[in-house]
Amino acid sequence: MSSQAEPQSAPTDPDGTMDRRDLHASDASAGDGSAPAEAAPARLLPLYRLMVLARALDMRLTEEVRTGALEAWKAGRCEGALVGAASALAQGDWLFAGAYDFAASLARGVPLSDALAHVFGVSGDCTKGRTPAGSARLASHELALGSYGFHNGAHLTHAAGVAWAAKIRGDKAVALALFDGDEISGGEFHNALNFAGVFRLPVVFVAVRKGDVPAASHRGIAYGVPTAVADGGNVLDVVSKVAAAISCAREGGGATLIEITHDEANVDALARCESELESRGLDSECRAAKEAADRDVDAAVSRARAAAPVPPATLFDDVYASVPAHLADQRAGLRTR
Amino acid sequence: MQMNMVQAIGDALRLEMARDPRVVVLGEDVAKVGGVFRVTQGLFEAFGEERVIDTPLSEGGIIGCAIGMALYGLVPVPEIQFADFIFPAYDQIVSELAKYRWRSGGEYSAKLVIRTPVGGGIRGGLYHSQSPESLFIHVAGLKVVCPATPEDAKGLLLAAIRDPDPVLFFEPKRIYRAAKGDVPDGDYTVEIGKARIARAGDKVTIIAWGAMLYEALAAADEAAKKGIACEVIDLRTLWPVDIDTIVASVKKTGRVVIVHEAPKTCGFGAELVALINEKAFLHLEAPPTRVTGFDTPFPYTHEMEYLPLAHRILPAIEQAATY
Which residue in B36, B55, B69 is closest to A1 by CB distance? Predict the structure, then answer.
């Protein structure tokens, strides 16, 4: 019964090439406009430090699981993709990261202590122990970091909606949603790309692809959303491509779908970044970064392990804005084991 | 001013969109056509294409995007064209909308109002007649409202849009135009969570909502001729339900008949019976009963046999009165 909404100034594609978004380092990427291979340490070092921190967190928490101190932990080792994408965002932009995208949350500015409290589900956890241990389901209004539910891609339309709201208000904010290969197949991906394409929304969808999952890069064309591919083994390639897509969105160019690929032979963006820095004689900076990361992670883990548990009565808070009578009754019936 | 329910709802939307620039209406055919029931007529002309939006036919996309708009700080009022179409959006509503505040530790509220026509009696058949309220009442974090009068429709919608929590606003389509009444001009709200005594009585309590309120009142009229004075409660808000008003009435009558269009099993009537038993058992003189739609899909030809109309409610009243 309803009619498909008209896309606002739908892009034309006489040569059949519009599915590829032409994103190069010259498009508003951070810094000096040099090609990635020649990038100045000033660009690389902050990214390196974040990747090192994420890696240190990953290794330490894997150990915590092994010793039984932590119930579960999973991180994807895609630090280049996650740090790169998150680092391309500007202050007022929004990030919707996935359940294990700690590296992205840290790059966004989530304090390590908050992240660890969340991982261990203890006092200081912004989600009050409500989400599974070991996952990055942090949310922060201050950092414009959305909340993640479960593995169905539902956050993709949330990102589209945020972008839409910004566009309606005449704001320049752009939304970015990270998702993985499994979330390409479901209806949520379709809904998000469809709305983003029809309404030319300032949203960037970033598929972090690793292993044998469906490719995203050839799907954008169906929705009028141009795509681009970035190399997950090269953090600067990720930063520049994502930044260019964000810039394009901010200027009214609509949505982009970026697929970050991970080559079996060359997945470790951290190692590549490190050898790049070392080749410029920055070994001591690298060492210092690693020592600082180990120290900070160690301190944060100790704090989290010593923190108080979250009181069970908090279960009834935040279901609604205020606790309704029927929940107050149920809370009165709470018994601890 | 005399209005029907369509006009009252339209009045509420117009008023709130003028008052609050954050309010955005979106859905299928809501803008240029003004809605298939003409509820949103005139809004597109008054507020423009940025705030009154025709969407693709994609309920999951409509609600998912509306959630994003709400996170950013808009107040979306998405429409689902018929409640029967809400199921593609059910995952977004149950898994995301209802849980967003809780799972984000209060960092965000995904506050929006989903407007949708419910109920049968319009020759709609299986997919234009359902009343899915219990599927939403059962999900923590949602509020569910169903007005039966134009005055309540306007006041409750204004309250719903201003409420900090997500609200499902069910509009009984059978009485969109048939329900007429005095609607106050200008701004007012009807409190969410408060039922209304539509008819006072002391022999049998009838609890109803939506279009079936009028069937309950008609049955109460017939019962009165037989000397049975019924108290008819219009719930208005389904969740959080006004259990205090229900209990006060049950304490007076000891006999309860609950009427709803939705199928019997695990319908909201079942929850009401459970609550009445918990809170007023010793006051009961008869088992609480439910007069409802049958546990079948909603029929086309036999619609009037399916619906719990006055001719089915009256025997239940008599049975309760003489138990």
Answer: B36
Distance of CA A273 to the CA centre of its chain: 20
A99 touches chain B (CB under 8 A): no
Higher confidence at residue B203 or residue A215?
B203
**Separation CA B138–CA B257 (nearest Å):** 21
Beta carbons of B55 and A152 less than 8 angstroms apart: no
> Would you say the pTM of this structure is higher than 0.80?
yes
What tens digit of pLDDT does each residue of A241-284 get? 999 999 999 999 999 999 999 887 767 999 999 999 999 999 99
Residue at token pair 């949520």: A188
- Name every chain A residue with its beta carbon within 8 A of the beta carbon of B37: none
Looking up tokens 């179409």 gives B85
Q: Do B60 and A187 touch (CB under 8 A)?
A: yes
Tokens read off for A51? 């990747």
| DSSP code at position A152 | T
CB atoms within 10 A of CB B273: 17
Which structure tokens are listed for A3? 């009619």
User: For residue B315, what are the contacts with CB-CB under 8 A and spacing of at least 6?
Assistant: none
Three-state SS for B94? helix
DSSP state of B183: -
Q: Which amino acid is at B18?
A: A
- β partners of residue B2: B182
Cβ distance B64 to A192 less than 8 Å, yes or no, reads: yes
d(CA B315, CA B323): 12
Contact yes or no for B53/B26 (Cβ under 8 A): yes
* Known active-site residue B128: yes
* pLDDT reported for residue A23: 65
> Which of B65, B140, B143 faces A164 most closely, judged by CB atoms?
B65
Among residues A10, A19, A3, the alpha carbon closest in space to that of A199 is found at A10
CA distances (Å), B271 to each of B88, B238, B278, B281, in order?
26, 11, 11, 14
pLDDT of residue A251: 97
- How large is the C-alpha radius of gyration of chain A? 21
Q: Go through chain B and tell me how many residues it has.
A: 323
| Burial B214-226, CB ≥16 within 10 A → b, else e | bbbbebbebbeee
pLDDT of amino acid A216: 86
Instruction: Report the candidate in A139, A155, A152 with the shortest Cα–Cα distance to residue A203.
Output: A155
User: Rounded distance, CA B92 to CA B98, Å?
Assistant: 8
